[in-house]
Amino acid sequence: MASATTIGKDSAHDHESDSGHDRENTPAPSEGGGGGGGGDETQPGPFSLKRKKAHPCDKCDKSFHFPARLIEHKNLHTGKTPFKCTIENCDEAFPTSDQLRTHAQRHLLRFRCEICHKRFQTESIRRTHMLTHSTVRPFACEDPECDKKFKTARALEKHADVHRPEEPQVCDVAGCDRSFKRKDGLQRHKRNEHGIRFKKRRSARKEDGPGFEDANVVAQ
């Protein structure tokens, strides 16, 4: 039986070799639609849009494009669990690599919202998220003529732009003269039009602290 490491390598190789060469090595189906098991009515050829699943399971009616996928699938029938979680103090193991990947997300997103059950990487991000379930708006605009309040410091910061003197945000990409009132508008333009990526800002910051206590009351 192939080891978990071997399975992983085979799977990666099979995905990379999804080409016409594979199609040439795929045995042609018999006239009766025989042992392929995929239920494909079209016969594979050089211009076929749908490849025949040439690797059928001998325990059920499922078929697969790649032998490594079939090997993993057979683990469901035999009960073998070669895909082991490598996180410290976790002894979970799974029959397929897909199930292991799904499980791994629970380690990365350990903090769960008790209301909508979404998961987050850190407690501070979860607490910021909790404000979306709350009617409390602890972040008030400092402009004396504005009575708007917001759930997060980031939303307040974004709103504050409307009170600042207009300073056009000009695109600095060569040959582009577009300008925007807001920085986020300029960034969106650069991302969509010029393919420039920006680092994501953290959802939760230290100054977000006050107001979380109110949000936690709602979650109880």
UniProtKB/TrEMBL annotation:
Compositional bias segments (type: Basic residues):
188-204
InterPro entries, from UniProt? Znf_C2H2_sf, Znf_C2H2_type
Alphabetical UniProt keywords = Metal-binding, Nucleus, Repeat, Zinc, Zinc-finger
One CC-aspect GO term: nucleus
List the SMART domains hit by this protein, alphabetically: ZnF_C2H2
The Basic and acidic residues compositionally biased stretches are: 10-25
- Protein name in the entry: C2H2-type domain-containing protein
User: What organism does this protein naturally occur in?
Assistant: Micromonas commoda (strain RCC299 / NOUM17 / CCMP2709)
